[in-house]
Amino acid sequence: MSVEVLLALGSNLGEKKETLMRAIGDLCTHPKIEVKNVSPVAVTAPVGGPAGQPDFVNLVLRIETTLSPFDLLRFTQTIEDKHHRTREVHWGPRTLDIDIIQYASLEMDEPDLTLPHPRAAERAFVLEPWARMEPEAELAGSSVRNLAEIADDADGIREFFPAPVVCG
C-alpha cells in the first residue's frame, strides 16, 4: 500500500541547485517511489552549525511510496552518499541532506529515525517551501503557513526560484 511522504532536501556546497535536481532524479529512478509535487527552491541562511557557512538551497517534495520508513531512510542515505555527503560536523556544510519530514501520519521515535521530523515545525527553510507547494498543509495540527511565519529563521529566507521539473 502506498503512503504519502514529505521529504526536505538541502545543499550548501558545490553545485547546489544541480545537486538537488540530480537527487530528485535519483528518487525518481526507484520503482517504489513516485514524486507527486515539488516546492519552489528557497535560498536560505544556514541554521545552527559552524559560523561562516554558505547559504543553503532548500526544497521539499511530496512522494508516494511503498517503502517502509527505514527502507526509505536507507535509500535517501545512499543518494546522499552518491553526492559525496559527509557527516563530520553536526549541522555543518554539506553537499546534500535529505530528511524525512512526515511519513503518512506515522509517529515514531527510534534511534535512527523520528517521525514527524522533530525540528520541522521550527524550521522556515522547510516550512516556507512546503507552504508554497501546499498552502493548506498542516504539521502536528498546525498550519504550515503559520508555523513558517513564526519560525526563528523566517528572516533567513533570501529568495525563491520556481519549482523544478522532475522525473520526465
UniProtKB/TrEMBL annotation:
<comment type="pathway">
    <text>Cofactor biosynthesis; tetrahydrofolate biosynthesis; 2-amino-4-hydroxy-6-hydroxymethyl-7,8-dihydropteridine diphosphate from 7,8-dihydroneopterin triphosphate: step 4/4.</text>
</comment>
<feature type="domain" description="7,8-dihydro-6-hydroxymethylpterin-pyrophosphokinase">
    <location>
        <begin position="90"/>
        <end position="101"/>
    </location>
</feature>
<dbReference type="GO" id="GO:0046656">
    <property type="term" value="P:folic acid biosynthetic process"/>
</dbReference>
<keyword id="KW-0067">ATP-binding</keyword>
<protein>
    <recommendedName>
        <fullName>2-amino-4-hydroxy-6-hydroxymethyldihydropteridine diphosphokinase</fullName>
        <ecNumber>2.7.6.3</ecNumber>
    </recommendedName>
</protein>
<dbReference type="GO" id="GO:0016301">
    <property type="term" value="F:kinase activity"/>
</dbReference>
<dbReference type="InterPro" id="IPR000550">
    <property type="entry name" value="Hppk"/>
</dbReference>
<keyword id="KW-0808">Transferase</keyword>
<keyword id="KW-0547">Nucleotide-binding</keyword>
<keyword id="KW-0418">Kinase</keyword>
<dbReference type="GO" id="GO:0046654">
    <property type="term" value="P:tetrahydrofolate biosynthetic process"/>
</dbReference>
<dbReference type="GO" id="GO:0005524">
    <property type="term" value="F:ATP binding"/>
</dbReference>
<keyword id="KW-0289">Folate biosynthesis</keyword>
<dbReference type="Pfam" id="PF01288">
    <property type="entry name" value="HPPK"/>
</dbReference>
<dbReference type="GO" id="GO:0003848">
    <property type="term" value="F:2-amino-4-hydroxy-6-hydroxymethyldihydropteridine diphosphokinase activity"/>
</dbReference>
<dbReference type="InterPro" id="IPR035907">
    <property type="entry name" value="Hppk_sf"/>
</dbReference>
